[in-house]
Amino acid sequence: MGWFKRIKEGIITKTVDKKKDVPDNLWYQCQKCKNASTQKEVTNHFYKCPKCNYHIRIGSDYYFDLIFDGKFTELFDDIIAKDILKFTDLKPYKERLEKAKAKTDLDDAMKVAEGKVNRKPLVIAAMDFSFIGGSMGSVVGEKISRAIDHCMDNKIPLLIISKSGGARMMESAFSLMQMAKTSAKLSQLSDAGIPFFSLLTDPTTGGVTASFAMLGDINFAEPEALIGFAGPRVIKETIKRDLPEGFQTSEFLLNHGFLDFIVDRKDLKARIGDLLSLVNVTV
Amino acid sequence: MVFLDFEKPLEILYEQLDKIKQVGELGGIDVSDKINELENKIKTTTKEIYDNLSGWQKVQLSRHPERPYTLFYINQMCKKFIELHGDRYFADDKAIVGGIGSLDNINCVFIGHQKGETTKMRAYRNFGMANPEGYRKALRFMKLAEKFKMPVVCLIDTPGAYPGIEAEERGQAEAIARNLFEMAKLDVPIVCVVIGEGASGGAIGIGLGDSVYMMENTWYSVISPESCSSILWRSWDHKQKAAEALKLTADHMLDFGLIDGILKEPLGGAHAAPEDMAKMLKKHLKKEINALLPLSAKELKKNRIKKYEKIGKFSKKKKE
Predict the structure, then answer these.
(1) How close is the nearest chain B Cα to the Cα of A35, in Å?
(2) What span, in angstroms and rounded, lies between the C-alpha atoms of B154 and A41?
(3) 3-class DSSP state for residue B298?
């Protein structure tokens, strides 16, 4: 995903020096409208296509930059994946992990950080699709679990930004159980009266949708994101029919009552700030 | 009788047995020695085959067309049982059944996936693949259990939650997520047993509990071996390999600490002696429920969340 340049300086996490900067004069071709824009235009346009407003898939660091008031601290960054099952398909899982790490400069598919939004504290757990399809294994489950404990201990609201193909197959039942684990922890957070906001971005499917992503006190999404339980290909193969236009998009979910609203990325920070000021924390 | 591919030697022996019995009857000859001999051979061959089952073979057994399903077990175990229907919002899902019944002196709420026994019934039950209303119906029953302080029994047997247009429209993901969220904090004991297939979100959607067991010849995984093969190997032909790689059998699951125990099946699988299996299941459920009943709602929930909080294996990164 090394396509964009950071918009702000002064971030205190280690990732800042790791991230490769891309020269501004590189061109970006939009996946959707195929029009070309300069990297600088895209960056200034909140990582959306300046021509058609397509929301480009971005990683956790970008969201932290976009949402937090400047500084933030990464939490639980020492948890890394383990090949529990000695899983091998066409490639060993171990090798897949190494490759993903080398390619993305990430340790797994989620980063957690604490910072402020409009001077109000917030913990954000954001997923990285570039790391094995943003899949949820033990690490993602554990990070969410610890983020929830941290929020309960410090009475801070939680925002999870989902972007995932679902559970990580290479951890088999361990990843399946992360659905139970994260949902169980969220029930604890809920009983503690602490708000949980769920932002669904392109794509959010499978076990991630069927656990924490759908459990927000308030669920919202970026425009035109793919959101669903089963993937469109699986559904098409099962029912042997074409899928209707706009099926499983944010707008479809909003229409069917599963989202509270859709927010353009340029308004994301302001909207989250408003949420934080409008929701009473009852603890 | 239905024989699976790895049961071929048994099929031959059973054929021989039938023939000898026929010869005996027709010719008026005493063939009891020969029959005894063959019956013993069938027993030892069955044991040999069943002692060395592969992951894929257990998957096949979990799908055996003669394998007992949820309603069979409930009707065997309960003197009285009233089936209840509907989620009160949309419909009555046929792939998840449930109701109130008693295990001797314990009144329980039963919930389970249901498959059909005939071609017609298989379609009627949607092959055990529930739609969102199935999960919402299950949640309604759990809330009933909570209100009347009755333990919940969940019997799991599904190839997955149904992937369809309407299922997505009605929020398949939300329905499963909501169940997990609510089951984690239910005030009454939840005892789960995988009685057949335990595929993915469709299984765990009624599978979060204080006690989770698997029958010996069942499986539990994040994805079916077929789908795993199709995604990771990009072909349907590697389901056997996928079944091994996913380590989805009860033995593996117990080793990993992801389940609390295994329920032995009769020799030849649950379908070989369904009534015996039902008796064993009843004994097991009573034991588990009796151990959980003394706990307060607070203790139950605390233990349950602790149990799930601990699930997961990862390493610690060395500081640079």
Answers:
(1) 32
(2) 55
(3) helix
Residues A210, B177: C-beta atoms closer than 8 Å: yes
Are the Cβ atoms of B305 and A145 closer than 8 angstroms? no
Q: Which domains does chain A have, with CATH numbers?
A: 1-56 (no CATH), 57-278 (3.90.226.10)
For each of chain B's 320 residues, which pLDDT tens digit applies? 889 999 999 999 999 999 999 998 888 888 889 999 999 999 999 999 999 999 999 999 999 999 999 999 999 999 999 999 999 999 999 999 999 999 999 999 999 999 999 999 999 999 999 999 999 999 999 999 999 999 999 999 999 999 999 999 999 999 999 999 999 999 999 999 999 999 999 999 999 999 999 999 999 999 999 999 998 998 889 999 999 999 999 999 999 999 999 999 999 999 999 999 999 999 999 999 999 999 999 999 999 999 999 999 999 988 76
The CATH number that domain B59-309 falls under is 3.90.226.10
Residue of B89, B314, B320 to mutate when probing chain A, most A C-beta within 10 A: B314
Q: How far is CA A86 from the centre of its chain?
A: 27
Inter-chain CB proximity A169 and B223 less than 8 Å: yes
Measured between alpha carbons, how far apart are the two ends of chain B, in Å?
Answer: 63
Determine contact, residues A124/A68, Cβ cutoff 8 Å: yes
Contacts of B311 in chain A (CB under 8 A): 138, 141, 174, 177-178, 180-181
Single pTM value for the model: 0.94
Contact B165 A239 (CB under 8 A): yes
Nearest to A229 by CA among A254, A257, A203: A203
